[in-house]
């Protein structure tokens, strides 16, 4: 199976797991914050929605131009705004947005070939250095989404523990 197809499958499966996991939760659970420093599940979902589109567009852009500086920092305004706006959005709207973003990403990845993923380009953050586009997909899409699924699961465990006190 081509590498790009593996990435598409991983992303699809993880998004399906996220949507399935949160679809059965009450709004109170989704909006509950484990602590002031941690994201609620709703904030995680808003971030997931934004990040899928951002990294997909970034990947396609870098490949189309044959390599250029890529990436963003933790203080990127679009990243921060997605989380900041969580309280003003409905759960169904965000879930629909995640599904739409995942469909867009799948379509975009489906247009790429494995050889394009070997293109190397410098990340804006010097700690990452020059990386192939496989790194962008693995680190910022597939692994990133899987990490947020685990974060949702941790929030649920913390919520359950808080309710049993």
Concise description?
By secondary structure, the chain is mostly helical. It has helices at 3-23, 27-31, 41-64, 77-84, 91-110, 133-163; strands at residues 120-122, 130-132.
Tell me what the structure shows.
With 165 residues, the protein is mainly α. The protein is built from 6 helices and 2 strands, in the order αααααββα. A two-stranded antiparallel sheet has the order 1-2. Helix 3 runs antiparallel to helix 6 (133-163). It is globular and about 55 Å long. The model has no long low-confidence stretch (mean pLDDT 96).
In the predicted model, the low-confidence regions spanning at least 5 consecutive residues are none
Main sheet strand line-up: 1-2
Shape: globular
Counted beta strands: 2
Classify the secondary structure makeup into a structural class: mainly alpha
Average pLDDT, all residues: 96
Biggest sheet features: 2 strands, antiparallel
Beta-strand portion reads under 5%
- As a whole number of angstroms, the C-alpha radius of gyration is 17 Å
Summarize the helices and strands and which ones pair or pack.
Blueprint: H1 3-23, H2 27-31, H3 41-64, H4 77-84, H5 91-110, E1 120-122, E2 130-132, H6 133-163
Antiparallel strand pairs: 1-2
Helix pairs in contact: 1-5, 1-6, 3-4, 3-5, 3-6
Keywords:
165 residues, mainly alpha, two-stranded antiparallel sheet, 6 helices, globular
